[in-house]
Fold this sequence. Notes:
The chain is of the alpha/beta class. It folds into 3 domains: 6-146, Globins (Globin-like, Orthogonal Bundle), CATH 1.10.490; 155-255, Translation factors (Elongation Factor Tu (Ef-tu), domain 3), CATH 2.40.30.10; 270-393, Nucleotide-binding domain of ferredoxin-NADP reductase (FNR) module (Rossmann fold). It is built from 11 helices and 12 strands. It has helices spanning 6-35, 37-42, 46-51, 53-71, 82-91, 97-113, 119-146, 237-245, 279-292, 313-321, 370-382; strands at residues 155-165, 170-176, 191-197, 203-209, 218-224, 251-255, 270-275, 298-304, 328-332, 344-348, 363-367, 390-393. Helix 10 links the parallel strand 8 and strand 9. Helix 1 (6-35) runs antiparallel to helix 4, helix 5 packs across helix 7 (119-146) and helix 6 runs antiparallel to helix 7 (119-146). The mean pLDDT is 90.
Amino acid sequence: MLSAPSVPIVRATLATVGASLDAITELFYRRLFEEHPDLLRNLFNRTNQAGGTQRRALAGAVAAFATVLVERPGERPDAVLGRIAHKHASLGVTADQYTVVGRHLMGAVADVLGDAVTPEVAAAWDEVYWLMANALIALEARLYAGARVDDGQVWREMEIAERTEESVDAASFVLRRPDGLPTEPFAPGQYVGVQVELPDGARQIRQYSLSAAPGHKTWRITVKRERSADGSLPEGEVSTWLHTHARPGHVLRVSLPFGDLVLPRDDSPLLLASAGIGITPLLSMLDHLGDVSPNRPVTVVHADRSPAHPAHRHEQAELAERLPHSPVHVWYEAGAGDVGESRVHLHEGRADLGGLTLPRDTTAYLCGPLPFMRAVRGDLLARGLSPAAVHYEVFGPDLWLGN
């Protein structure tokens, strides 16, 4: 909670700071990486930095956090930070790094806003930052403690046991511990970080959902080869490296599992709605439900460009067959094609939930591009679902936060 003297100052300057956050975060990252180039090479996603998405995500998170502090002081502001904390844990972020970030961020605020940043304004926004930073530090400490590791010590060597080409642009990798022991447990829907050394020596990290149910001696990730649609940005550095070089027997550096998109422990009806490679965390959920709750009502929705693109299309249908109350609806933009599974309902065009029967107490899980998730969420809220019942996972910086 903000101190009493800071509340009116932050409220009065929130619009000014918010309007300048893009310039502030651009200057912040530039100075941070000039002083600590290793952070850009070995921690931050260089592609997201080049495209500006990380900058916009940080601006949205700061604005959302500050707004909660001044407009809803009775609400726990760290509730908006859980997703960020899980992402940080999968990167091995440690508490000491927040001091460096705070110094450069507050310096950027002062330089962008100039004379508007009086000592009182600077002190109030420094308080906002440290409330946010300390909330994240506490959340991440709990995640590390839950994983039974020291802060940031999340990395393990994992050997590729199998590689399968799942579609024209996606491959799955089964990972096992080199010592033959079982892999650490995880909740269906969670992800791991994968770090690879690129030709220029940078060690870049990307997160990939675990795409099979827990309970095995192995993990499985599915990697889509990312490509720039217009050629303005480089291809996905890590996904391209994995598609080109990763083969059975290769050892990867992989984090412990994290992520807050997890199933409720009850028998309420579920909607698992995905688009593109967003199928992966929901596939793990579907696999898990077949093991532990086969009679639970589950509606499965997937959208993709064409029948040639979906990863795990047949596996999704086969997993749904284990749940007798789980219809599967698949939309293809470029023709419905013929899947061949008996309980798969094929549709042409963009996903439209209007014709589906969904109980009012449905809990929904969404994963895919932001336009898809926003459209599906809007449909669900219009049909009476509570906003608290709609959960989502964003691959990459969370540009939904603060919108």
